[in-house]
Amino acid sequence: MPSAPTANRGSAHGTAHGATLNEAQREAIRYLDGPCMVIAGAGSGKTRVITHKIAHLVNAGMRGSAIAAITFTNKAATEMAERLASLVRLPEGERPLVSTFHSLGVQILRRDCKRLGLKPSFSILDADDALAILQQAIATTDRKLLRAAQTRISLWKNAMLGPDEAAAAARDADEHRVARAFRDYAATLAAYQAVDFDDLIGLPVKLLESEPEVAQAWRERLRYLLVDEYQDTNACQYQLLRLLAGPRNAFTAVGDDDQSIYGWRGATLENLARLQSDYPSLRVIKLEQNYRSSVTILRAANQLICGNPRLHEKRLWSELGIGDPIAVLACDDEESEADSFVMRLQAHKFERRTRFADYAVLYRGNHQARAFEQALRREKIPYLLSGGQSFFERAEIRDLMAYLRLLANDDDDPAFIRAVTTPRRGVGNTTLEALGSYCGQRQVSMFAALFELGFETRVAPRQLEALRSFGDFINRIARRAAREPAGQVLDALIAAIQYREHLFDTLEDKAAAVRWTNVGDFVDWLKKRAQDEGSTLAQLAQSVSLLSQLERKDADADAVRLSTIHAAKGLEFAHVFIVGCEEGLLPHRGGEPEGEDDAGESLRIEEERRLMYVAVTRAQRSLTLSWCRKRKRARDLLARQPSRFIAEMQLDANPGAKRTIGAGAARERLGRLRDLLAPDRGKG
DNA sequence: GCACTTTATGTTTTT
DNA sequence: CATAAAGTGC
Predict the structure, then answer these.
(1) pTM of the predicted model, to two decimals?
(2) Which residue is nearest to nucleotide C2 (CA to C1')?
(3) Residue A434: how many CB atoms within 10 A of its CB?
(4) Looking at residues A666-678, what average pLDDT do you find?
């Protein structure tokens, strides 16, 4: 087996792949007599339990295609499908459905959305498009209010409250205002035949609740459900699970209350308790043996998390030995934090003969990556940035996506606006405003309005001509898309709009070249996908918005990983650096302290503590924590304190567990190593 | 009326 | 430091 650098694939140390299953794992796999919940501590082999349970079901005679494994991220789904494929060989049509909640939602919706008054070619809006629509609805330019409104509405949706219930639940004037905007927002989405991310769960719930035959059909199709990262489900996802499970209650939920880090997205630990009260016969099985980390690391993790009240008390243990002490680095500022990381990395790598891919830098916020990127680039160390801006959020990709969405769905006004203005074709704000107001009166989409006789008088002839020829163009491409292969039409589209020329006209050559390369990657990816799945351009447009990262082959590259802690969940690395361990960052200080009560405050700290716990438990062999005495924020330099979590891990009380090292020591050591390696290269 | 250039502004985490 | 609203040539 080639050892891949990413998680769960076991770099020699740690993972339980080849080993036999332990008693608790076997029990979790074999138990089929009723609903089952597996409390799987960090590194206890939960993916293994899920894949082996699926294999067990298949061996027991269940059709593979009747089993569904549901994850939260595409990465987890891909990983799961691969591990499963290496365990049981199943023919194409007999493979279990391994999918995220959101893609499952799309599948359910695509089949029967007509019953909800939604056309099958509905558009899926990303957060930015949704935000633009909300901005219209709430009529504000205050970005803070806008963002707050978006999360508020999302939380309402995840709690399964519609605009009416939201208005009833609103506690102050601001929330009432947001509830009113929620109503307009929902109406606008309906007019556009568009849905947002939350609707991908909420609408299937609505559908299965209101159409018993549809629910029945899905229950017959999916006879056993396995849910990964159950602690991250929100009320709406829980309801979807209940509806899919039906009265048969044939499911296994796998989760860990200590790793619940998506409370801000509506995930609620109550779902763990609810599972027990809603299913009294629920069998609860705990996995406490850790196959990943050294005893030192686990002891620190246990020490940290015991500060939280927990639903399921558990104590992780491991047989992997004491391992290296945990180091704490106090740095001057973020540059010196990044510098000392790079120097320690180089020294460590030289001494231990490790690979770059054995190292990961984990941080609270994406902006923290910048200093580390710079330092790594300067030293010519390969790195992989996970999280951060998604490939599909890049402007050039969104431009092309707008065309695809418009081809699929004429009513998608946001896509229309983006496509008609990119590249520029003589249609600007005034024209779009006139078009928008006409559409408002006539209750038609922008695309449909172009060809209406009544619209002709609303804009200047020149603009009308530009709009209509754009409309004709889209119609022509759409006609071709129905007949010809997706890839061919895509090439024709990009050539016809002269996108390459547009990039080089509007940007510096270097930037344009980068974007054009991205376009090429995107097109290749679409073509491959269209071929593999036999999907049309329209269907592709739907699946694309659910992806966060282009699955690239260079995931196997030997490179240092830079990642947010959130994005690192489920992964493991031999040597982990948790950076920015400062009060205010980790734990992060929330928005304004206005009106937040003590209970809310301590809940927030508990989630931050779980986040730190997730970070610590990513490490197999060594763990280094660092913090900065000063950190730039906006324009000024702020004095900072080390995170309370460092103290909570009681590294001092843990003999030999802590080494505090000044940032200068590594610099000197690296200097010596460099001299040793290449004396003439010596530099300051 | 369109398209490009300047100036204020504001930072968690993600499907 | 990067994005989005307001300002200036064409």
Answers:
(1) 0.88
(2) A367
(3) 16
(4) 64
